[in-house]
Amino acid sequence: MRGQMNKGGKLQQYRPVHKEKNQTEEKIATSAVTPQTATQQPTPPPNSRTGMQTNPQRIFCHRCKGFGHMARDCSNVVFCINCAKPTHRTEDCIYDKQPRPMAKLVGYGAPGLGCILIQNTKPDPPKEHNNPLAMISTVFGGELTEAQLEQGFTQQFKWNWVWKAKAMPNGSFQMRFPNKIKFDELANFDYFNVKGTDVQVNVKEWTQESEAVGKLHIVWVKITGIPEEMKGYQALYEIGSNLGPVLEVDMATFRASNVIRAKVGMMELGVLPLKLVLTSPKGLLFQAHFSLEEVVELGWFSDQLDDTFEKIEIQENTLEGSSQREGKQVVVVDPMTEDHHVSKTGNGLLKFVRSKSWCQN
Ligand SMILES: [Zn+2]
Ligand SMILES: [Zn+2]
């Protein structure tokens, strides 16, 4: 017996048995679940040695890892907590079998440009919803709790609606409104008092930007001085990433006229035009030149962000002292591996994170 049955007859766990003993059966069980074989042979193939029909209990399900049925007929409940999908078990999830993703630091090109890029973000949620999602921000009067906000709205707006507030990291709250008309009604006020408190709030539509504490400047940058060996899709993206996350390299213009343009997000624009020394595994040095071609969208940076930078700067000063900040830096572009290294001469990685003192320099 391969596994143990529980009271409901469902398989609880899979126990591998010695291969030699069951080799013939193993083979049949595997071939029986191949979809092609299954459609060609509706009845299980007879055992070649005995001429007997295959025991249906030997049919293996790849979905729930149980026996007696195929994956397409599987009615057992499986759920993966990693993917939040009812398509496979957590134990079978490919995520746990792959190297864990790591964030990338981009913007090594100049002090003040550095930021940490997370590439595996979720797609935008669908916008249409019967109950509009609002952002409630406090304007005056100090801080609010979720409960105070919910109570205040429940007493004030008796709309036969259960108010649920969710505090967000930037200090605002998410709340769903019963409908668009009621939302517009409150969004029209500049601000109003939350009943039972001294706090004034305003109501706006919730967007992804509502959660942010800032947004990078989005610009088109023209890049010159790039050697032939770096003129390829991957190397051009690597080169662009010295300024920040690369949204796009204009490959059409590059192929048509050999002009390199990259659309990048940047922490600040004051560093442009910028000269950078690039190298490859061959060790030759090339001087690349980055110049601002077009501002697509100016970014914004909230005061909260400045607090973060001040904290990072304090840590950095304690760690290595400010006298060690000077030093040459060379960016290595490896067209073969897509690897990106920054050679450090007495500088911690934090050097590349935006800080006030460098902005003022
Ligand atoms: Zn199954
Ligand atoms: Zn999964």
Summary tags:
disordered C terminus; nucleic acid binding; 361 residues; disordered N terminus; 18 strands; alpha+beta; metal-binding; seven-stranded mixed beta sheet; five-stranded antiparallel beta sheet; binds zinc ion; zinc ion binding; zinc; Alpha-Beta Plaits; Znf_CCHC_sf
Query: How many individual β-strands?
Result: 18
Listing every helix as H and every strand as E from the N terminus to the C terminus, the arrangement reads: EEHHEEEHEEHEEEEHEHEEEEHEEH
Name of the top-level CATH class of the domain at 133-211: Alpha Beta
Q: What is the CATH topology descriptor of the domain at 133-211?
A: Alpha-Beta Plaits
How does the major sheet shape up?
7 strands, mixed
Report the total helices.
Answer: 8
Region (Disordered): 1-54
Biased composition (Basic and acidic residues): 17-28
InterPro entries: Znf_CCHC, Znf_CCHC_sf
Domain CCHC-type: 61-76
Descriptive notes:
The protein is an alpha+beta fold and 361 residues long. The protein has helices at 19-32, 35-40, 146-156, 180-187, 233-240, 251-257, 303-320, 356-360; strands at 3-5, 11-14, 104-106, 115-117, 133-140, 165-167, 173-176, 192-193, 200-205, 214-215, 217-224, 246-249, 260-266, 274-279, 285-297, 300-301, 331-333, 340-342. Among the domains are: 3-73, no CATH class; 133-211, 2-Layer Sandwich (Alpha-Beta Plaits), CATH 3.30.70; 303-360, no CATH class. The strands form five sheets. A seven-stranded mixed beta sheet has the order 12-13-11-15-14-17-18. A hairpin with a 5-residue loop joins β14 (274-279) and β15. The longest helix is centred in the C-terminal third of the chain and has 18 residues, at 303-320. Bound molecules: zinc ion (2 copies). One zinc ion is lined by residues 61, 63-64, 66, 69, 74, 76.
